[in-house]
């Protein structure tokens, strides 16, 4: 695998008219479905290095070194996708005892599949050399409680959108930038769908004209509350271009 991994993408060219929340999520296929080549689906051999610990930040240190350029940005995205995929997997696994509605379960199941797809994509692209496995922890989440689940989902989706928007300015390879743009559009649809579940028939699904753009250090601090390993950023970018909301 080369030093600068590239995301392999294709444009389906489909334009759909969403009729409901699930249709919005299925728009993932429009304008940028990721293509998995057989060689990319080979699992990487990675081990959990949490040492059996469960408190956020109590495990070994996982360092993302921005001196590596695009590799660091892909690793940064991979860390977030691992968290999201694990969260939604736990949500779906708890359906038997949760008070989520049938509609909410359908939406969350769709999101789970998307996040697992994202996680496995980055895992294959980064390979065993640049990949790593994070251990998640949820000390303040009740997976049986609807509001606990949906509020956490909203937090994670909003964080993901901010993260991609903020890190995109450090990507140098146009293919990586294009793929990141496609993935963040899916994350934004997730955020809109979750917000609508929490506050239906309001403008909660799109409360502002532009999404936030947040610097990596702030995102890492937010994600740390759900990760056992200690997340560290080395050689962080000296500059940061604020987004339209000027709050990154």
Overall description:
The protein has 248 residues and is mostly helical. It has a single domain, classed as Ferritin, core subunit, four-helix bundle (Ferritin, Up-down Bundle), CATH 1.20.1260.10. Helices cover 46% and strands 6% of the residues. It has helices at residues 21-26, 70-93, 102-130, 146-167, 174-198, 216-224, and strands at 9-10, 33-34, 61-65, 230-234. Strands 1-2 form a two-stranded antiparallel ribbon. The longest helix is centred in the middle third of the chain and has 29 residues, at 102-130. The radius of gyration is 17 Å and the shape is globular.
Concise account of the structure shown:
With 248 residues, the protein is mainly alpha-helical. 46% of the residues lie in helices and 6% in strands.
Considering the protein shown, what is the CATH homologous superfamily?
Answer: Ferritin, core subunit, four-helix bundle
Quick one: biggest sheet? 2 strands, antiparallel
Work out the count of structural domains. 1
Return the CATH architecture.
Up-down Bundle
Low-confidence stretches: 6-48
Distance between the termini: 34 Å
Query: Helix share of residues?
Result: 40-55%
Q: What are the salient characteristics of this protein?
A:
about 250 residues; mainly alpha; Ferritin; 4 strands
Topology, please?
Layout: E1 9-10, H1 21-26, E2 33-34, E3 61-65, H2 70-93, H3 102-130, H4 146-167, H5 174-198, H6 216-224, E4 230-234
Parallel strand pairs: 3-4
Antiparallel strand pairs: 1-2
Helix pairs in contact: 2-3, 2-4, 3-5, 4-5, 4-6
């Amino acid at each position: 695998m080369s030093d600068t991994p590239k995301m392999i993408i294709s444009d389906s060219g489909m334009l759909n008219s969403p009729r409901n929340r699930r249709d919005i999520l299925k728009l993932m296929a429009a304008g940028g479905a990721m293509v998995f080549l057989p060689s990319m689906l080979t699992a990487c051999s990675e081990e959990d290095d949490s040492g059996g610990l469960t408190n956020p930040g109590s495990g070994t240190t996982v360092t993302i070194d921005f001196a590596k350029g695009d590799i660091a940005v892909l690793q940064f995205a991979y860390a977030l996708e691992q968290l999201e995929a694990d969260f939604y997997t736990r949500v779906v696994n708890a359906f038997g005892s949760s008070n989520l509605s049938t509609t909410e379960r359908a939406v969350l199941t769709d999101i789970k599949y998307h996040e697992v797809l994202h996680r496995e994509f980055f895992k294959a692209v980064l390979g065993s050399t640049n990949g790593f496995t994070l251990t998640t922890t949820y000390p303040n989440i009740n997976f049986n409680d609807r509001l606990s689940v949906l509020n956490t989902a909203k937090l994670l989706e909003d964080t993901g959108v901010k993260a991609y928007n903020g890190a995109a300015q450090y990507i140098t390879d146009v293919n990586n930038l294009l793929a990141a743009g496609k993935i963040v559009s899916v994350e934004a649809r997730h955020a809109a769908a979750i917000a609508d579940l929490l506050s239906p028939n309001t403008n909660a699904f799109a409360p502002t004209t532009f999404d936030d753009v947040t610097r990596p250090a702030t995102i890492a601090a937010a994600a740390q509350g759900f990760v056992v390993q200690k997340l560290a950023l080395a050689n962080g970018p000296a500059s940061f271009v604020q987004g339209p909301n000027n709050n990154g």
